[in-house]
């Protein structure tokens, strides 16, 4: 009885203990897998799926009813204060129902980041492959205090989102020292790596890609969620195409910095994201809304069409007067064949004023995004311009954060060097005057 009570208390409080590592994980309730079980008649008890301890031993029904009666008595006396939103997220993430290894086989490492390790895993019953993202809670708290809550937020957000262009969360398992996120396998790698390797890209192809991503942003915003870290690295393909007619899906990943706008809130305050993709209002440390995702989407579209970042620098905290000067949209000389409709879209996405910047719905309805005004058979120069960071010898262990900095630095370098010095603005104003230099084809 004592052990059961201790286990229940640890699940109902916001400060989970941290015992030694265990290979057994426990899935969260209300993931697609558990919802399917519920629909098929495999129900969860009145503890909301807390019928198992970490050891895998089931609670005795008599003991469980006694524990429930005790909890009801405590609540009737007003002994429990209302939990904060953050505490409820942590409580749900540490819920327990069964064992990871009962359902999945963890296999080889697919990738290593600064905050997690990704393994391939295989469902025992179906043989289907998934990606298993493993987060070491102790490591996170020691190196990045406070970051663990971001994983709880990511889990909560992904449980709410079901869209063909947003990565799907299949299951979540938790021990007191690790979190295991079972997600769909994205075997195609980064979208921009695919574009570079493909070697060619037409406006029609780019329009279809942007349509898919924008559709996901529309859905995400309709659910009251801001991503806050949209960038090329967070756009992955389900698979690498095997033939010209094979069109893979592109999906948004990494919701660790995302924000729920709860209780009717329309704005957020935290300063976070990735250099090169931050909206002016965020750089100014102002309150911001979903429109920061639209700015980041504009930067992604610009890179996809032009092969470089749209602005030379976004460091510092510019004043209102400096913003308009700092973020004048100019197009590089090699993008002179870009259609007027594509430039019009970018002007609306990269509007410095968030109140007049396009919404996700407006972007999705734009003629270029729908494909109605795309210039046919217009081949873009971006595949040969985009610079993808290559890991130097002996640097295979670079952190994920360092790789992000390298990617942004490479795209910024293209902007600043050679062709980036000779720019053309949408209103025909010329900027710079540097001699154009040929970029090596990748």
UniProtKB/TrEMBL annotation:
Q: What reaction does this enzyme carry out catalytically? A: L-threonyl-[protein] + ATP = O-phospho-L-threonyl-[protein] + ADP + H(+); L-seryl-[protein] + ATP = O-phospho-L-seryl-[protein] + ADP + H(+)
What keywords are assigned to this protein? ATP-binding, Calcium, Kinase, Metal-binding, Nucleotide-binding, Repeat, Serine/threonine-protein kinase, Transferase
Q: Which InterPro entries match?
A: Kinase-like_dom_sf, Prot_kinase_dom, Protein_kinase_ATP_BS, Ser/Thr_kinase_AS
Record field: compositional bias (Basic and acidic residues): 50-82, 407-427
- CDD domains noted in UniProt: STKc_CAMK
GO MF terms listed in the record are: ATP binding; metal ion binding; protein serine/threonine kinase activity
Positions that bind ATP: 133
**Residue intervals of the Protein kinase domain:** 104-369
EC numbers on record: 2.7.11.1
Enumerate the residue ranges of region (Disordered): 12-82, 385-442
Q: In terms of domain of life, where is this protein from?
A: Eukaryota
The record, for PANTHER family, names: SERINE/THREONINE-PROTEIN KINASE
| The protein, known as | non-specific serine/threonine protein kinase
Q: What is the organism of origin for this protein? A: Triparma laevis f. longispina
